[in-house]
Write a structure and sequence with these properties.
Number of helices: 5
Number of strands: 7
CATH architecture of one domain: 2-Layer Sandwich
Strand order of the largest sheet: 3-2-7
Shape: rod-shaped
Distance between the termini: 205 Å
Largest sheet: 3 strands, antiparallel
Order of helices and strands: HHEHHEEHEEEE
CATH topology of one domain: TolA/TonB C-terminal domain
Strand content: 5-15%
Length: 227
């Protein structure tokens, strides 16, 4: 009895179609697999080239920064002539320590040596001595000296100024004149002129107290008169 088959259910007629579909699927998968491996290989190669470039750039930068150290300057050697002296040679200006005494060597230098200065004793000026100081040759010689040396100031002459100028001074123990002061002035330059003449006087005989020469004070009137 013959088996009855439906033409639609008969697979033998479609075997060729299924075979073609399978081949297409296999080729598509193989092509896809090949492209994926190629892409991954290209990506790996690109990453490798990037890393190599960065390493080479880093090495180049490092080589540029690390410069070789500059050579140290060569110091010139200075030759000094050294004179060799025998041990038995005599050295001049050698200090002889035997010249120092034991007392000098045992001086205590811890405390500074202070030199005591003697204070100058200034004797007082006697106002009224037992013997008054005197101009050499007496009072007559004194007024003669004043008349010969005083120059009447022109200002006082023009103003008609006359009178007495009192000059105070100290006669030292050696007879010299010091500390000249005008105690009373009449103006017109008369005081300055009297002071000048008194300072230029020769030495006096000093005053005395109890036979002892002392510093004494004297007041001298200098008369200015127009003739």
């Amino acid at each position: 009895m013959e088996a009855k088959k439906s033409p639609k259910a008969d697979l033998e007629n479609r075997k060729g179609l299924f075979l073609e579909i399978g081949l297409i699927v296999i080729l598509a998968l193989a092509f896809l697999a090949f492209n994926i491996k190629k892409y991954e290989r290209e990506q790996v190669e690109a990453i490798s080239r990037t890393v190599v470039d960065e390493v080479e750039e880093t090495v180049l930068n490092t080589e540029e920064q690390e410069k070789p150290p500059e050579p140290e300057p060569v110091q010139e050697q200075v030759l000094t002539d050294i004179e060799v002296v025998d041990n038995d040679a005599t050295i001049e200006n050698e200090v002889d320590m035997s010249a120092f005494t034991e007392e000098v060597l045992n001086v205590d230098v811890s405390a500074p040596i202070v030199e005591e200065k003697e204070e100058e004793v200034v004797e007082e000026v006697v106002i009224i001595p037992d013997v008054n100081p005197e101009f050499g040759g007496g009072e007559a010689k004194l007024y003669e000296y004043l008349q010969e040396n005083i120059q009447y100031p022109q200002l006082a002459r023009d103003g008609g100024i006359t009178g007495k100028v009192y000059v105070q001074f100290v006669v030292e123990k050696d007879g010299s004149i010091t500390n000249v002061q005008v105690k009373r002035d009449i103006g017109g330059g008369c005081g300055d002129e009297a002071k000048r003449v008194v300072k230029a006087m020769p030495k006096w005989k000093p005053g005395k107290v109890g036979g002892r020469t002392v510093r004494s004070q004297f007041v001298l009137p200098v008369n200015f008169n127009l003739r």
